[in-house]
């Protein structure tokens, strides 16, 4: 049997009862190296022994993520990643609000054009026949000739 990455790093023979073998395969030694550097082998073994078998894989994935972040940024670690993701979410939410307002504005313009058509305004009637879809309104909004100039 080939030694797992953890046993190979410790320069010992891997047994069939090795608690680390399922989570640190021999073909991925860096995974164990980064976790061992931050937490130490004893901590990893004790943690795994205290968990149910179903929870161990998630625990190792969490340790790998946290250890990788700590190696890149020893001060903030994953807190920096969380902060950056929160900022990105806030930015995307503000963009979503802006796009929703833009969409409401386009719907309002379209409703005004329909009203003009119903009222029999020739200017609005001539123009309304050229607008078939909301995409046409979006094109007109980007065009120098504003829909509001026709009203």
Question: What can you tell me about this protein's structure?
Answer:
By secondary structure, the protein is mostly helical. The protein has two domains: 5-72, no CATH class; 80-150, no CATH class. It has helices at residues 5-9, 29-39, 41-49, 53-72, 78-119, 122-128, 134-142, 147-150. Helix 2 crosses helix 4 and helix 5 (78-119) crosses helix 7. The longest helix is centred in the middle third of the chain and has 42 residues, at 78-119.
Short description, anyone?
The protein has 151 residues and is an all-alpha fold. Helix content is 71%, strand content 0%.
Can you count the beta strands? 0
The coarse overall form would be elongated
Mind telling me the C-alpha Rg? 31 Å
- Spans of at least 5 consecutive residues whose pLDDT stays below 50 are 124-129, 146-151
Looking at how many chains there are and whether they match, the oligomeric state comes to single chain
Q: Whole-Å distance between the termini?
A: 82 Å
Listing every helix as H and every strand as E from the N terminus to the C terminus, the arrangement reads: HHHHHHHH
Give me the secondary-structure category: mainly alpha
The largest β sheet comes out as:
none
How many separate domains make up the residues? Answer: 2
How many H/I helices?
8
Helix content bin: over 70%
DSSP strand content: under 5%
- Overall average pLDDT: 83
């Amino acid at each position: 049997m080939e030694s797992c990455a953890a046993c190979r790093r410790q320069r010992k023979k891997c047994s069939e009862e090795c608690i680390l073998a399922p989570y640190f395969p021999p073909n991925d030694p860096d995974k164990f190296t980064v976790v061992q550097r931050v937490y130490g082998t004893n901590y990893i073994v004790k943690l795994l022994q205290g968990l149910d078998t179903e929870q161990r894989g998630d625990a190792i994935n969490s340790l790998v993520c946290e250890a990788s972040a700590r190696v890149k940024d020893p001060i903030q670690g994953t807190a920096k990643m969380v902060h950056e993701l929160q900022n990105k979410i806030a930015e995307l939410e503000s963009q979503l609000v802006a796009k929703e307002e833009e969409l409401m504005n386009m719907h309002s313009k379209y409703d005004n054009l329909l009203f003009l058509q119903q009222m029999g305004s020739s200017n609005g009637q001539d123009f309304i026949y050229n607008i078939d879809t909301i995409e046409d309104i979006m094109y007109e909004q980007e065009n120098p000739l504003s829909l509001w100039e026709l009203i």
